[in-house]
Amino acid sequence: MVRKFFVGGNWKMNGNKKSLSELACSINKAKINPDTEVVFGAPAVYIDCIRQTLDCKYGVAAQNCYKVATGAFTGEISPAMIKDCGATWVILGHSERRHVFGESDELIGQKVAHALSEGLGVIACVGEKLDEREAGTTDKVVFAQTKFIADNVKDWAKVVLAYEPVWAIGTGKTATPQQAQEVHEKLRKWLKDNVSEAVASSVRIIYGGSVTGATCKELAGMCDVDGFLVGGASLKPEFVDIINAKQ
Ligand code: 13P
Description:
CATH class: Alpha Beta
Number of strands: 8
Bound molecules: 1,3-dihydroxyacetonephosphate
Radius of gyration: 17 Å
CATH superfamily: Aldolase class I
Shape: globular
Strand content: 15-25%
CATH topology: TIM Barrel
Strand order of the largest sheet: 1-2-3-4-5-6-7-8
Distance between the termini: 17 Å
Order of helices and strands: EHEHEHEHHEHHEHHEHEH
Number of domains: 1
C-alpha cells in the first residue's frame, strides 16, 4: 500500500497578512516534491487571503472548527465557512485545543463527525503528555483518543491521523525516529484491530513535535511515518526541506 507522504504546516497563532502571504509566495516558488501532499494550517482570519495567494496544488486547513453549521456560537467558525473561504482541511484535536482550551474527547469526536459530513478533510491529532509517557500509559492514552475519533469516522479516505506527543511540541525535543515509529506502528495495529485492515494500511499517520530540517529525514525513513505536522519550522525556510524529507 503506497501512502502519499503528507506534510502539514500548522502556523498556529503566528504571523500577519503580510508575513504569511510572503511565506506562501516563497512556497509557490520553491522546488517541492510533487509526490508529497502539502497543506497549510492558516489562522482563520487569513484563510481566504492565503488560499488566494498559494498555488492551487497546495491545500489550506483551518486550525479548528465547531461541530454545527450555523447558530449562536460567538467566536466559532463552521466547516461551511471554512469551505466558503476555499480551505479543504481542518486540524482537530490538537494538543493546544485539548490542554489549553480544555476540549474533551467527546467534543473533538463531534467536530470530526461534522467536519467530515461537510466534506472537509480532517487532520486528527492525538498524543500523550510527558507524565503519561513516564507513567508508561502512552498506548492507553493515544488509543483512547483515537477511539473517540474513529467512532466518528465513516469514511477514512479524508482522515489523516497525527501523532503529536505533547512533550515534543514546541520544546525542541523531537521524538526519536524509534519512539515515533513505535507509536505509529501501534496506532496502525489499533486501526487494524478496531476498524479494518484496509483502513490500517491506507491511513496516513503523521508525526508532529519539534520537527526540523535536521530531524525530518531520519523520521521520514521510518516505515509507519507517513509525513509530518510542523509548527515552528513551518514558518521558516527549512519547511521546504521538511516537505522534501521523503527520499
Ligand atoms: P512544533 O513543530 O512547533 O513543535 O509544533 C508541532 C505542532 O504542534 C504541530 O501541530
